[in-house]
Amino acid sequence: MRAIVRKIAAWPSLAVFAVFFSAAAFGQSTRPFLQDIQVQRESGPDADASLIKKTGSSSPTNAIAASAASGSLIKSAIPALAEVEIPGYSGVLVQSLSGDVIVDSASDTPFNPASNVKVATAFAVLKTFGPEYRFSTGVWTDGSYEEATGTIHGNLYVSGRDPVFGYEHAVRLASELNKMGIRNVKGDLIVTDNFAMNHSGSASGSSRSLFATLDAAKRSASANNAWASYLVNSGRFTPDMPVPSVAFTGSVYVQPMPGNVNLLFSHESAKMRDILKATLCYSNNFIAERLGEMVGGPYAVARLVQQHAGVPADEFSLQTSSGLGINRVTPRAMMKLLQTLRSELAGYRMTFADIMPVAGVDKGTLENRFDSDFAMGSVVGKTGTLSRTDGGASALCGEINTRNGKLLFVIFNQRGSVSRFRRFQNNYVSIIQSYFGGPAAMAYDEVPLNARLAKTRISYPAGAQLGS
């Protein structure tokens, strides 16, 4: 089995990335990954094969639902797992890739999955748009171009719904305008109401940030640092690169686009797969909500899961696309989603590691979990944390890699201390790995998240040219 191959590069201005994914935008913790092997069952007098059943044959019982709060009635053929106390009001389900149940505790009871909801949102947008999709931000004008002075006589318009559009992308717009010979706009900057910048939910605030960032004389130090980092991470840096800048004589407004505008060019974001990777690694609530809006909001996300994963509506109910607030999902339904997502990714020759954090390797909520030399890179998945909602909720789901095979798992803990829940999750996964021969690192080449998000591009409309 191949070990993790870690490609480490000296990316400057890493602090900028910390600003880009600000602490206010995140609110979670960490988890799991991929690679296929037959799960070996234990033989001998202690192994009770009758307790290991296919997922489809398991049926909800009132006894299991009633035991969720106490952690009793844990169904497992592994004595060490059956005897582990599960804290809080909790549900646990662990299965082999073939569907054999390793552990089942209250798997048919609804819990708050916290940011495990983002796994559903990721599935919904992948199913609808695919992993190669890019968000387009259009730059338009209703004016004429004066080549001698590099001036547009008229207004400049910017439209788009890119949820990861930031300082560096705004400077990229200025850079592209400069390449076209445009350095001045004798008019206003008009931004549409679906535009967002730096994870701001305010279109007016985003428009003001864009206006200031386009003009080098008004550009903030944070914007300059983000641009410098972007140049290095995208491979576009050159020592003699000029400073991009576009100055306006007018002001900035949020308004609808008129019909008499011409498209100059479009800025295209990184691919959806890379946006999802960053979103799930850092559990970014703003991006998750924006992605959910693309398919129709949380109810549409839930409906897509119900349809494609074969999950009953009463086992998968969402009010948000990020996991904030009150959502209800059973461990059994989340397991079906993991199985369905895994198959969907396989169709694109992708794995969980392409969109979720690999524990102990990727930056983000799983960065400091399962990070010992023995366990590093053996878990990939998604965390969830709500400190106060439902009395405190912590979740962890994904894939465990062991020396004797891969396992899918779901752990929902509720009504208790989040820190205690996380300690339990860490210990519990370690116990499972030990039973299956110990953890095994996955074959995974790390690509820093800021390098993934720097893979943007510019596209021009066919036959486009500036009029004089």
Could you write a compact summary of the structure shown?
With 468 residues, this protein is α+β, with helices and mostly antiparallel strands.
Cα-to-Cα separation, first versus last residue: 63 Å
Low-confidence stretches: 1-67
CATH H-level homologous superfamily name of the largest domain:
DD-peptidase/beta-lactamase superfamily
Instruction: Say how many strands there are.
Output: 18
Report the principal-axis shape.
elongated
Physical arrangement of strands within the biggest beta sheet: 1-3-2-17-16-15
Give me some keywords for this one.
468 residues; alpha+beta; six-stranded antiparallel sheet; six-stranded mixed sheet; 18 strands; elongated
Commentary on this structure:
Strand 2 and strand 3 form a beta hairpin. This protein has 468 residues and is α+β, with helices and mostly antiparallel strands. It folds into two domains: 295 residues, Beta-lactamase; 134 residues, D-Ala-D-Ala carboxypeptidase C, peptidase S13 (D-tyrosyl-trna(Tyr) Deacylase, Chain: A, 3-Layer(bba) Sandwich). Helix content is 30%, strand content 18%. The strands form four sheets. Strands 1-3-2-17-16-15 form a six-stranded antiparallel β-sheet, sandwiched between helices. A six-stranded mixed β-sheet has the order 11-9-7-4-12-18, covered by helices on one side. A four-stranded mixed β-sheet has the order 5-6-8-10, with no helix packed on it.
Q: Which helices and strands, and how do they pair?
A:
Layout lengths: L13 H7 L41 H5 L8 E2 L2 H4 L6 E8 L4 E5 L11 H13 L6 E6 L2 E3 L4 E3 L2 E4 L7 H13 L4 E3 L2 E3 L11 H12 L6 H14 L12 E2 L3 E3 L7 E7 L3 H11 L2 H10 L3 H12 L6 E2 L10 E2 L1 H16 L32 E8 L6 E10 L2 E10 L3 H18 L13 H5 L3 E3 L9
Parallel strand pairs: 6-8, 7-9, 8-10, 9-11
Antiparallel strand pairs: 1-3, 2-3, 2-17, 4-7, 4-12, 5-6, 12-18, 13-14, 15-16, 16-17
Helix pairs in contact: 1-7, 4-8, 4-9, 4-10, 4-11, 5-6, 5-7
